[in-house]
Structures are given as structure tokens and as C-alpha cells.
Amino acid sequence: MRKVVSSLVVGTLSVCSSVAWAADPEPGTDAAPTAATEATTPAADSPDAKADVASATAPDKDSALVADAEQGSSPVELPGKTYLFVGARYRAIILPKFMMNLFGDGGKTVVAHGFGPEFSIRKNAFEYNLSVWYAGYGMSPTAFKAKDDPARAWEIVESRLKSVFITADFLWSQDFSPEFSLNYGMAGGFGIIFGDLYRTQAKPGANGNPTTGEGFVACTSDTDMQDPGDYCDTDNNHYNGYTEKSWTDGGSKPILFPWLVLQTGLRYKPHKNFAARFDAGFGTSGFFLGIGADYGL
Questions:
Q1: Domain residues for 14?
Q2: Under a CB-based contact definition with an 8 Å cutoff, are residues 145 and 107 in contact?
Q3: Is 189 found in the same domain as 86?
Q4: Are the C-beta atoms of residues 18 and 11 closer than 8 Å to each other?
Q5: Tens-digit pLDDT profile for residues 76-99
Q6: Are the CB atoms for 53 and 46 separated by under 8 Å?
Q7: Are 17 and 164 contained in the same domain?
């Protein structure tokens, strides 16, 4: 359309030039050609002229979007382009008592706090979040036993276990706007377990409940043996701060623990160089809530 307008302008100028430099017209040959030219040129305020001008000057929306994404602080992410982020995360891992009771009696709800660095690779509304992070699984002394063990098997268990997790999150995004999106996906990895797990045989206290373990207290030695019930016996000699051995030494303390979760959350990216997340999920370690903050490279 721009070429059409230019042709009309050039044609009009050519006609005007010819009229200015040509000889005087002969009688009877009035300005008919000029009138014809004017007839073929749309008026400036006609709909056709306005449409031509609008077409010639209308901006390309896609080009504007690309320019906005590549310049300044726009959070817009272009299809097909890879974005890299580096930052940190925090996890509050909630291991409910009812999950412990799937495998044993007693116990309590434990909240483990985890944190560490992360590295993200994002493209086409999909991202990998790679992280090495630490979590502490501390638990104060609590009565616990296996489900199929008799009442005299109650023990007071204290955990000072810790873990270094190596994990990868795989998240898709549903964008609400360039700034806000809903994340959903899964994560996998494993934790390397270290630290101590203390086990001490227990006996009923003044208000001890042999069904739930509430009110049980630690035995000092096998000389605390009580009848009836044969508490504080010599079956395993878990006294005086006994430390559970790991799998490699024939004990029950794990050396590796899987991290497998389904997760969702929200992503907020107000600037091309900053993105924040709220994460929530459920998996092999129980429930977790978390946050992440990343800088765009």
C-alpha cells in the first residue's frame, strides 16, 4: 500500500511538472487531464486515504514484543529462547505423625528445615531446577516402636540426622501474564544421610500408656527390669546413649534416602533479571512448603 501511495504522489508531481513547463494549451483544450488526475486521487479525508495512512504507519505487534523482551527490564520470555537463572531455595519439610504411624507406633510430627543453592534452565515455559541442598531431621526424644513389636519393645528415640540432597525439579508453567504463572510438575533425587540416631529402651512412667507410648521413660540399664512386662530387658542392650548403626554396619540407619515429589506453586518475575517462586508438594519425605529466589544471567 505504501508503494501505491508513493506512485500516486510521483504521478501527481509529474503531471504538475508537465503543466508548469509545457506550452500554453490550445483553445478548447482546457484542464481536463488535471481534472482526471484529481478524480483518480482520493481526497485526504476520504476513508480510502485514511486506511492507506493507517496501513503504512501501523506498528508490528510481534516486532514490538520482541524489542520489548530484548531491551530494558521486561519480564517477557520469547519462544525458543533459553533463559538461565542462579539463586537459592528454602524448604520446610513436614513429616506428619500419621505417616510415621504407617510403619510404627508413637513418634511425633517433625518439621525439617532445608536450604541451598539452585541453578535453573528455562525454555518455552518449561524449566529444570537443579539443586544441592542441606536439611536437618532433628527430633527430640520420643517413644517409638515397630507396629508388630510387643509393648516391652518401646524405645525412646532421638534423631540428629542430617541430609545433603541432590535433586532436580521439572516444572511446566501456565502463564497468567508475563509476570505471573502457575507451576506444576515433579522432582526427583536422593539424599545422603549422616548424623546420629539414638535409641534407648523404655519403661512406663507414672502415667505410661503401653498402647501409645505416652508417659514412657528411658531405662538406665537392664537392672531397671520391671515385672510384669519385662521392660528394660537384655534383648538388644540399647542403653546409655546407644547410637544406631548404618546399613553398611548392619544397622537400620539409612545412608541414602529418595526424594520423589509431586509439586506445584506460583512464579513471579517482575524483572528480566529476577524470578521468585512459592513451592508446595508431597512425596517420600512428607509435605513441603518452599520459596526460591533466582537471578537471571
A1: 2-58
A2: no
A3: yes
A4: no
A5: 999 999 999 999 999 999 999 999
A6: no
A7: no
* CATH number of the CATH domain containing 186: 2.40.160.20
Distance separating alpha carbons of residues 293 and 275, to the nearest angstrom: 6
At 180, list the grid cell: 505471573
237 and 153 together in one domain: yes
State the helix-helix crossing angle for 47-57 and 2-21, rounded to 10 degrees: 120
For the stretch 239-293, pLDDT in tens is 988 999 999 999 999 999 999 999 999 999 999 999 999 999 999 999 999 999 9
Phi-psi region of 18 (alpha: psi -120 to 50; beta: other; left: phi over 0): alpha
Separation between Cα atoms, residue 154 and residue 215, nearest integer Å = 11
